[in-house]
């Protein structure tokens, strides 16, 4: 596997593939790789001629300085995992390489970015759009892979490529979970042993709610999920919304959409975890 740290070398390496019309697949990550990331990498390898994975902790998408400072960085281990997985190129640039000067672009993706994470993490999606657009310009992938764990992020990326006219196919990948249901996340390593034991209540409660949702109103499901998780010491639900999975707007009745998705953010101690689940559409 080739490890490249600058855009010029990356472009020159990939130009050989482009010349031969080979399909370039791309997985953007912030490193501290786990099996969730690797499931995207596997899919990328199987669907393209070459797989490029970027590892870059993007400062402009962190609205919390402490979160940026404490974000796990494990480049050496990440490269080992990527190599084992069969990835061809790891692109691991410095902050100076990606931001030789400040990126002053301000995006407006309308309603998909002004709800949920968009409200609670001001500037987050603007930073995501800044770095992902720069990475797309650098890699020029045919296909780019994103995890449904960051459900809202996929909607924002789709809006971005449409707005900027970037010719890339965005591929959604399912959430990979631990055996006890907890969605894999680079932030899980920051949980204490006690918090790690409690955290699966999030996925467990979401799953339970899917089973009884057909007999309950949207509000009853929201109340159940919120109160069940809040009842666990050290857990605090920041929001739980049931939205139309395409527009990300909250629904008040199941009949409001044929694609209901529940999106949650929970503080477990000081670690912020997100997750989501799809509900069955109301049969008509
Ligand atoms: P991150 O490094 O957290 O920015 O994540 C990089 C990519 O991996 C994003 O598209 C995430 O949605 C995806 N990802 C993170 N965790 C998981 C997971 N548990 N299952 C599937 N994809 C994931």
Question: Main traits of this protein?
Answer:
single chain, 284 residues, alpha/beta, Rossmann fold, Pantoate--beta-alanine Ligase, Chain: A,domain 2, 2 domains, 6-stranded parallel sheet, 3-stranded antiparallel sheet, 39% helix, binds adenosine monophosphate
So what's the overall shape? globular
Ligands, deduplicated: adenosine monophosphate
* Order of helix and strand elements from N to C terminus: EHEHEHHEHHHEHEHHHEEE
State the CATH architecture of the largest domain. Answer: 3-Layer(aba) Sandwich
Q: Give the % helix.
A: 25-40%
- Quote the distance from N terminus to C terminus: 51 Å
Overall residue-averaged pLDDT value: 97
Low-confidence stretches: none
Biggest beta-sheet profile:
6 strands, parallel
Quick overview:
The protein has 284 residues and is an alpha/beta fold.
How are the SSEs ordered, and which strands pair?
Layout: E1 2-4, H1 7-19, E2 24-29, H2 35-47, E3 50-55, H3 65-70, H4 75-85, E4 89-91, H5 95-98, H6 117-120, H7 124-139, E5 143-147, H8 151-164, E6 169-173, H9 193-198, H10 201-212, H11 218-230, E7 235-244, E8 260-268, E9 271-278
Parallel strand pairs: 1-4, 2-3, 2-5, 3-4, 5-6
Antiparallel strand pairs: 7-8, 8-9
This protein binds adenosine monophosphate (AMP).
